[in-house]
Design brief:
This protein has 96 residues and is mainly α. 57% of the residues lie in helices and 0% in strands. The chain starts with a helix and ends in an 8-residue tail after the last helix.
Amino acid sequence: MDEHLAQLSHQVAAAADAWLTDPRDSSVYVRLVRAIEAYRHHRQPQLPTEESVVDLSGPAVGRLDEDEVLDGLADSRAPKSVGEGLADDPVWPSVV
């Protein structure tokens, strides 16, 4: 956890504690909401703006064809049942 996130977490906890002590105090509630909003803003990535969105409507240059990828996987790893997959896993030998 980075220092800023730790500080924001502490602010949320302190504001929550103050609000639980006096839930009718509107200024304490506002402080709690602002602390939570700051925490969320730091933790959640911002969505790209319309200018930064990549246009995917054109031809697929440099992108892999989904069918080719699936065919390649099928050649190297044939599908098997869940029981077979678990039997091959050394962590789950007693389940099967």
